[in-house]
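Quick log. Single chain, no ligands specified.
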Amino acid sequence: MAFDGITINSIVTELKDRLVGGRVDKVYQPESDEIILSVRSLGKNCKLLLTANPSHPRLHLTEISRDNPMEPPLFCMVLRKHIQSGKILEITQPNFDRIVNIKIEALNEMGDYTLKTLVLEIMGRHSNLMLVDENGTVLESARHISFDKSSVRQVLPGKEYVMPPDSGKTDTLLLNEENFHKTLENLNSEKAFAAIYKGYNGISPVIADEVCYNAGIDANKPVSTLSDSEKQNLYEAFSALVDKIKATDYLPQIVYDGEKVKDMLPFSLNKYKDLRTQTFSSPSRMTEEFYSAKDTAYRMSQKTHDLKHLVTQNIERCVKKRDIQQKSLKDIENREHLRLCGELITANIYAIKQGMTTVKLNNFYSENFEEVEIELDGSLTPAENAQKYFKRYNKAKRTYTALQEQIASNDEELAYLETVLAGVENCENEQDIKEIRRELREQGYVKKEAKQKGRQVNKKSAPLHYISSDGYDIYVGKNNIQNDELTLRTAHSTDIWMHTKNIPGSHVIIITRGADVPDTTLTEAATLAAYYSKAQTSSMVPVDYTQRKNVHKPNGAKPGFVIYDTNKTAYITPSKEAVEKIKQV
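-> predicted structure:
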């Protein structure tokens, strides 16, 4: 379900109880479109997340820690100046729309109390976060909307804050029989459920469909075909739902269809009564659970976009290079024939006359002694023709030798870049991204940055850590630097090392402490190796495993590259469900 007016209302209700009267202790801006307010209220510290993320805009209390930039962005500095240490007076949802206003009273530079409003507009890709003063003037916003972006409504510092254009919908909390029937009349050509969500603020198609379900009416039935009794039933079902909202009778829950998450709801819906649900103590907890994985994936996708583009470009370069090399190999595949022609001409030099353009000579190297037709340059002597063939042969031979080295080097680079791309896909946080960027810089794919003043500390990101059903620690490298660290420095000689066979992926280490590893643990570790590889969506993925003492890194090899022997191979079909069953630390 969309982050609709009802869900927002349930969160606003929670925030009123938890935050009104509290003071804004600190302000952070982890992302360009995301603000976190640390609020001291009722003797407790709370963190309020407000995000205008175009894919997942929302607000709720959060318990997840986020990395903040070293230098606070401008919007964050403006917020700190105007609302830090301020008191939250009011949290409202105008017209039951997807807008939340947080009124904060704080002292200005002159020591006078002033009123500021933090406005969050939750409107998909048009979402925004703004700070407005008591005169209705925008002080700053997460996104600046100039005239060239919108001729209807500009959002810029110094301009008057104007509410989004009126949608013509009715405030859901003002529902009555008169405006309901008028709405149906105005939306006479719409389907029953569409008339409800198009006529009233904050109602999503899912809730409109639930109203129709409770009224015993086909949601897709056109309004024009509804009888008076059906319209009345529809009104009564809608009115009952609105009464529930007014009473703040919320029961936040996530609905599952099998193992897959289907929906996030502010209260139970009758149409989902046969599906499994997970209830939460607060709408904030529900929202954080529902969006955390999606939001992380979105942020990582945005932040790794340039890395993926860089690595993919270099992979494409290597693929094109390989095609050219293969064509060059094909062009010189007759090099031994050139040598043969030179030798046959030399052996029969007195039988060949200058001026001949072709000659047929017996191949004395062949058991069948068959004739070989050889082209000649009539302007050259037989000896010169032989030398010409030998020169062409030697050139082709040198080209072949050089190509073999180039192909090996190119294949090595291509395999390396594939492992980097797999590492980019495994990124979970900012530190993982920095680590890969540093690796690419060291390998010459990214320009070196100018040295910054002060001491620079390169923090290491941690590999994934799992515990098998038998209690064994399993570590999974997320990138080449972690792979080298795990395999070459963390693992002991008797620990088990795993990697997909000839497929880019993570190094996986089972810490054995000298004990024999049960098959269950081996299977779980192999599942992780297959899942965190390029073959994640494949079946029967070969995973090699051996003791760490059998794994070696050649001198000068690229990050993540090792050779090994005395290995065994397991065949695994990886799945997200199988990985989620393994306990992660």
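The mean pLDDT is 91.
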